[in-house]
Design brief:
Order of helices and strands of chain A: HEEHHHHEHEEHHHHEHHHHH
Shape of chain C: globular
Largest sheet of chain A: 2 strands, antiparallel
Strand content of chain C: 15-25%
Number of domains of chain C: 3
Structural class of chain A: mainly alpha
Number of strands of chain C: 22
Helix content of chain A: over 70%
Structural class of chain C: alpha/beta
Oligomer: heterotrimer
Distance between the termini of chain A: 27 Å
CATH superfamily of the largest domain in chain C: P-loop containing nucleotide triphosphate hydrolases
CATH topology of the largest domain in chain C: Rossmann fold
Chains: A mainly alpha (347), B mainly alpha (330), C alpha/beta (505)
Number of domains of chain A: 1
């Protein structure tokens, strides 16, 4: 039964994704074609994967945060910080040395992990609501990013830096491998260790989890750190893509897109069960929407409007109240839940 | 009796006022020309729009909700106003009601979605944020400068107060909004219902309060305030632009929180939010006077203040919880 | 009284939830100036009946008449407007508002378009004086005790022209003095001719305050009786619907007490205390011993248990486990010392609603293993299957979400969670609360058999007969203090324990 539920959680997002892609085919017969050009695979689908990489990364981190009944509004600012640190630390580096690249990655990831830890500590140790705690970094982080770049858009002339977001490996964009690696790490940690179970239990009932001997504080700290990590890498990819750092605009709205991807993927904002695969599909839906809007020739201005409508539709579809109003036929299915009513009288 | 009421819940507000005084004193000692009544009045002139939108947000946060759409609604309002005035050549007396109605309807729609489909305010107003900004872009991606006598008057009109000191018409609007809001919050059923819902929505429902109507109303009012603020902002900028007021929702929330309203709802004051706006204003003024400081320090300072107040709120909540704990252990 | 027309009459009430008939053909009548007790075990349909009456639930069949007029109540607000007011078990007021506001909100006194605070303060003062309460009405509700909040809730209910007052378990968090105070208020209101519905689990209180009793069982109407004509035993039989004898068969063989004395001590507690929660106490728990913790609600039972589990941090005292001094500062440490704790608040502190039965079961065990020593799924399934069968959990599908289970089955899953950790001391805080009689018996049988295998059990319960039937030793608490320890060797009766619990008798 659970398996079929997970299936159904993934089912609709995939249907939506396929529909969006098919819609593109309608306008552009060559949409699905992929060809090898200059040693790279080129095509719209590859392009969606490549451009969607930062969002997928950030959404993976966000999924775990949301599963603990939290939210990380700071990711957009962390992206800006990461890009700023990365770009600034390779500024003026010579192309022939690869060392500055690793310094940049190390510094970015290190500092953003600290930023994540800061959020995690505020939430788990000080006990501030997640939406509030991460709001601080959302506001201040962008200021810090601008502080690092001196308020300028800093351009990077160091070639190896561009490889992170623009390089190719085995015909495919390197960023896809980064996503695959981070996704694999997340899957391993949550499904092959007890961390996944603990995240779901902390998100579903923190008090009961503590009384069952689970250190929920460390779990919460961990997910925010992981979210910071994901945002750091996403930020590096974004900054590397454009070979520059923009403290003001880099990663703008990413927290919202990431939350949207998580929700589309079937993870509830109320915490508990999470679906990493669903999140990936959700992120791809958002990216293909954007791509579609560009390729179909709709003015890009409509992008935000379309996103808004998608958010609303997805949320409405997940709302039990809406479903109830939509069809009375679903009522019989709810019969199982009658035990819930009983639970009220029993306790 | 009054003394007893002055308990720990008012601590944030008191802290805010003290902070404002300290910052003002700091500025006055450090910079020549800071301690002038016009600099003080400029705080109101420059932040009239923020005061108005913070008033609407105060009710939302008091009820335990959040409204992320306000910045975008301001942008949308400015675009509608600019395009209708400049491109369609309509009279301000038609344009202004249309603008206000747009914001109000967006707010009402959000409120209805939140209430009737039990969606999270956060996510609904997030969609509202996308929608409003998107619509602003749909009208035009370019800035539309406004050149109209009424708007020019509203922008540059000076209402003398004493001596050479003056305020702008917008300040009057903001002042009226604040007075009405204070009255509504403390002397009307609607206002008290907002506090009750923020305190305990379930209880409010069982006490027979019109929770649904009130909640829709809260977001409607916030939408109205945002569009009114959008008009004032348009007077101030004399242009419509889709990127106007970008990230303003954060400033607004920060002002409300710094003004002493608990983000969990149920406790806070409209007047506090006004002081909160003043603090944001004074930070900017200090940065302007300092000259060498860059604008991003504003963000970092606001972030630091947010941290301070959020931790303060947290301490208060913990204190009141331990207090309650002792009570229940009779 | 019988000849009067009832103020409120409900006839043939039917309420169905998908798959469940919560009320079938239930009758209820209420006369002016009487206190009418609504009795029934958990799940009998009391709450449902009240929710139907107050418009929280819609009605599927039957009629409701108020003073002879048929009424249709669609919302709590409508019920209030009709004069039907309810005070719930959990105080449903807003603690962030002042007392006066809590009394008046929704129907504030208006003057010239604004709220007339002065007049409201005056009237609130008056209203509370009628209930013999003299408090500052302008202070926040949160500055008063739960009992006081309860009274304020009643004041609010009276503020409307109340014809019917429903008190839904109003006494469950009050101490004896506060109950007396409440009953004085109820008697006053009764004299004024108000019709009062009283729901409570405390038999003593029912017999003290009510004139008439209606009994429900499994959503069915069993009967209506005058309180003075219905002996307690008969009432209990009507509520439970089966002979009480079944329980007695659990009794532990009383012959092996001598052995108990010889058994090794598992835990020695000396001078443990936490300010405001429990005064310093000593307690010895031997291996294979069932120790009962008796005391009224709020006497400090749960607080004591929580200290032993490290759920709260003690201020003074020390705990020795098998003679070695231990620090128990967190549940994690307690579990590492093979202590388990089944909380009384299953919903808030027990189940993880979004997880399956299997995941709920292995949670504590996985907790001891940490993040990286994950119990393989195959092993998890084995364990879950084993305990589903052992504890007779229904539905017998470990992949079912626990939130879909009945209270009794959730409780069994909680037991399984702790049994899997193979504890040496199992603390059970009200494990039989809110579950049906069959599950109660099963749980108590299990306790006895576990103790026979050497597990120590600390059994917290407000059901004295359960304590007497199972425990070797009973510690009695009163007013957050351990007042005595009774060995259950001789034929102790509920009366003996109650004397200790009440004190000064």
């Amino acid at each position: 039964m659970i398996k079929s539920m997970i299936k159904s959680k993934l089912f609709w997002p995939i249907v939506v994704l396929v529909l969006i892609l098919l819609f593109n085919l309608f306008f552009d017969r060559g949409f699905f074609s992929i060809e090898v050009r200059g040693g790279h695979l080129v095509g719209s689908l590859i392009d969606i994967l490549n451009r969607g990489a930062p969002l997928m990364l950030i959404s993976i981190g966000m999924t775990l945060v949301i599963a603990t009944k939290g939210i990380d509004l700071g990711v957009g600012s962390v992206i800006a910080m990461s890009g700023a640190i990365g770009a600034m630390s390779v500024a003026g580096a010579a192309d022939d040395s690869i060392l500055p690249l690793f310094t940049a990655i190390g510094l970015s990831v290190g500092i953003c992990v600290l930023a994540g830890a800061w959020n995690g500590l505020l939430v788990s140790r000080v006990g501030v609501q997640p939406i509030v705690a991460t709001l601080i970094l959302m506001v201040a982080g962008r200021g810090i990013a601008q502080l690092i770049t001196g308020g300028q858009i800093t351009t990077v002339y160091y070639e190896p830096y561009s490889y992170i977001g623009g390089g190719y490996l085995f015909l495919l964009p390197f960023s896809i491998f980064i996503v695959a690696a981070v996704f694999a790490i997340a899957m391993f940690l949550t499904r092959k260790t007890a961390i996944g179970l603990f995240i779901e239990s902390v998100g579903s009932n923190p008090d009961a989890s503590r009384l069952s001997g689970i250190n929920s504080k460390n779990i919460i700290l961990m997910v925010y750190i992981f979210s910071g990590f994901c945002a750091a890498i996403g930020g590096l990819i974004l900054s590397s893509n454009v070979a520059s750092a923009d403290g003001n605009n880099a990663g703008l709205w990413y927290e919202l897109d990431a939350i949207l991807a998580v929700v589309i993927g079937g993870t509830s904002l109320m915490g508990g069960r999470f679906f990493l695969m669903g999140t990936l599909v959700g992120a791809l839906i958002i990216q293909s929407l954007t791509t579609t809007i560009y390729s179909v020739g709709v003015p890009t201005e409509y992008n935000l409007v379309v996103k808004a409508i998608v958010v609303l539709i997805v949320c409405l579809l997940q709302s039990p109240e809406f479903r109830k109003r939509l069809t009375g036929a679903f009522g019989s299915k709810k019969g199982v839940k009658s035990t819930k009513d009983k639970g009220v009288t029993l306790s | 009796m009054k003394k007893l009421n002055l308990d720990y819940k008012q601590l944030p507000l008191i802290a805010t006022i003290i902070l404002f005084i300290i910052m003002y004193a700091f500025g006055s000692f450090r910079y020549t020309g800071f301690f002038s009544s016009q600099v003080f009045l400029n705080l109101f002139i420059d932040n009239a729009f923020l005061i108005i939108v913070a008033v609407g947000m105060t009710f939302v946060i008091l009820s335990g909700g959040i409204d992320l759409s306000v910045g975008s609604v301001i942008a949308l309002t400015s675009m509608i106003a600019a395009s209708l005035i400049m491109n369609a050549g309509l009279s301000p007396w038609i344009v202004i009601p249309i603008c206000l109605l747009t914001g109000t309807l967006i707010g009402m729609g959000q409120g209805a979605l939140i209430q009737y489909f039990n969606l999270q305010p956060f996510i609904v107003t997030l969609a509202g944020m996308f929608l409003a900004r998107g619509l602003a872009y749909v009208i035009s991606v370019e800035t539309i400068a406004i050149n109209h006598p009424f708007f020019s008057y509203m922008a540059s009109g000076r209402i003398p107060i004493w001596g050479d000191n003056f305020i702008s018409p917008s300040v009057i609007i903001a002042f009226v909004v604040v007075v009405i809001a204070v009255f509504v919050a403390h002397f009307t059923k609607y206002g008290r219902n907002v506090y009750a819902i923020g305190g305990n929505e379930q209880s409010a429902l069982l006490m027979g309060l019109p929770v649904a109507r009130t909640k829709v109303m809260i977001y409607t009012v916030s939408g109205f305030c945002a569009s009114l603020s959008g008009l004032v902002f348009t007077f101030y900028m004399l242009s419509g632009y889709g990127l106007h007021a970008n990230g303003l929702e954060l400033d607004t929330i920060a002002a409300v929180v710094i003004g002493g309203t608990l983000l969990t709802g149920g406790s806070g004051y409209v007047a506090g939010s006004v002081v909160g706006v003043m603090i944001l204003g004074i930070i900017q003024t200090v940065i302007v006077f300092e000259g060498t400081l860059s604008s991003w320090w504003t963000k970092i300072a606001i972030g630091a203040l947010l941290l301070l107040f959020i931790v303060l709120q947290r301490v208060i909540v913990i204190r009141s919880k331990t207090k309650k704990g002792i009570i229940s252990q009779h | 009284m019988q000849n009067q027309t009832p103020r409120l009459a409900m006839e043939g009430i039917v309420k169905e939830f998908p798959g469940v008939k919560a009320l079938s053909d239930v009758n209820f009548q209420l006369f002016p100036g009487e206190v009418h007790a609504l009795m029934g075990e958990n799940g009998a349909g009391k709450s449902t009946l009240i929710k139907v009456l107050t418009g929280v639930y819609s009605i599927d069949g039957g009629t409701v008449t108020l003073e002879g007029n048929p009424i249709h109540v669609n919302s709590p607000l409508e019920a209030q407007e009709l004069g039907i007011s309810t005070v719930y078990q959990e105080v449903n007021l807003c603690t962030n508002l002042s007392v006066v506001e809590n009394i008046f909100i929704g129907r504030q006194i208006m003057k010239k378009g604004r709220i007339d605070w002065k007049e409201m303060n005056r009237q609130a003062d008056e209203l509370l004086k009628r209930l013999n309460l003299n408090i500052d009405v302008t202070k926040l509700l949160s500055s008063y005790s739960v009992a006081m909040q309860q009274m304020i809730a009643i004041a609010r209910a009276l503020n409307v022209q109340a014809k019917v007052l429903i008190l839904d378990e109003p006494t469950s968090s009050l101490d004896r003095d506060e109950v007396n105070q409440l009953f004085d208020v109820i008697r006053n209101l009764q004299k004024e001719g108000l019709a009062i519905v009283f729901v409570s689990h405390f038999l003593d209180q029912i017999y003290e305050i009510s004139n008439r009793i209606t009994v429900l069982r499994n959503g069915e109407w069993i009967g209506e009786y005058m309180t003075k004509d219905l002996p307690r035993l008969e009432l209990v039989e009507k509520m439970i619907g089966k002979e009480l004898n079944e329980l007695t068969s659990i009794s532990k063989g009383k012959g092996d007490e001598v052995q108990t004395e010889k058994r090794e001590s598992f835990m020695e507690v000396e001078n443990l205390s936490k300010t405001g929660n429990i005064q310093p106490f000593n307690l010895d728990i031997h291996e294979g011993e069932i120790v009962g913790l008796a005391g009224l609600l709020g006497s400090g039972r749960t607080e004591l248990a929580r200290l032993l589990f490290g759920a709260d941090k003690p201020d003074t005292g020390e705990i020795k486990i098998k003679g070695v001094k231990k620090q128990l500062n967190s549940p994690k440490q307690a579990i590492a010392n093979r202590i388990a704790f089944c909380s009384e608040d299953r919903k808030a502190e027990g189940i993880i609603p979004e997880l399956t039965i299997r995941e709920n079961m292995i949670l504590a065990m996985q907790g001891t293993k940490g993040w990286f020593r994950f119990i393989p799924k195959k092993k998890q399934i084995e364990i879950a299957d084993e305990y589903v069968e052992l504890l007779n959990i229904n539905p017998p599908n470990p992949e079912q979400l626990i939130k879909n289970l009945s209270g009794g089955n959730q409780q069994k899953v909680m037991l399984a969670r702790w049994l899997i950790t193979n504890p040496e001391l199992l603390i059970l805080d009200e494990p039989t609360r809110g579950i049906d009689i069959g599950a109660k018996t099963e749980i108590m049988k299990l306790m006895v058999s576990l103790s026979e295998k050497g597990m120590s059990i600390l059994f917290v319960s407000s059901e004295l007969d359960e304590v007497l039937r199972t425990c070797d030793k009973i510690a009695v608490l009163r007013d957050r203090k351990k007042v005595s320890e009774i060995s259950n060797k001789d034929h102790k009766t509920q009366h003996d324990i109650m004397k200790e619990m009440a004190g000064g008798m």
